[in-house]
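tool_call: predict_structure(chain=1)
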Amino acid sequence: MRIPAHSVCTAIRDDIVSGVYERGGRLTEELLARRYGVSRVPVREALRTLEAEGFVVTRRHAGACVAEPTAQEAADLLEMRLLLEPLGASRAAQRRTEAHLKVLRGLVRLGQERARQGHSDDLRSLGSWFHETLAQASGSPALTSTLIRLRHKIGWMYEVRGTRDPAECWAEHGAVVDAVVRGDGERARAVMALHTERAAAAHRLRFTAGAGGAERADRTARAEGVRNSQHPVNTSSLRS
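tool_result:
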């Protein structure tokens, strides 16, 4: 399938995240150009961008390869998300447009409907769409790009395990939107912080790495689990 040259970077990134290219695997310009139906020039530019983002590394005698992040690097990303997602929600409460609110409300309605009906297939993509829209509503291109890149990298490094009730998760999304609609930045920050903490506790590394990094990742998950057990979410109070 041929795609526009400007989409090559997104296409390669998506294929890395979905596991089409294994960690440490070589990424040759010729094969990538053939796969995506473009010349080697946009492929070369895409690889440079992906290297800056941390998805690709250049190795002597091997060229471009898929990066092999450590468990410590992965744990750092979860910690960054815990800090930046609430900031984005707070900014969105002050800077969102009516267009952002329309999309966010629609996503919450659809997500809550799918959750009630037990249709979980679409919930992950709807959740990603929700968080990316909320990030865009922050009115900060730098923060938006950072949050979106964090979500991509976390999705690449982690799998989500747990028994979180989808209806509860989307109730939290709804509470964030309620705060954003009211322009209540502190409320939006607090609700998103709790939501992000609970989500982090369900993440488990897709790969094994050095003991130090693995232990740190485990400590992060356990800490979030303890913190969440001490502060259970009451979705009715979230909407007060």
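agent: The first helix runs from residue 8 to 17. Proceeding to next step.
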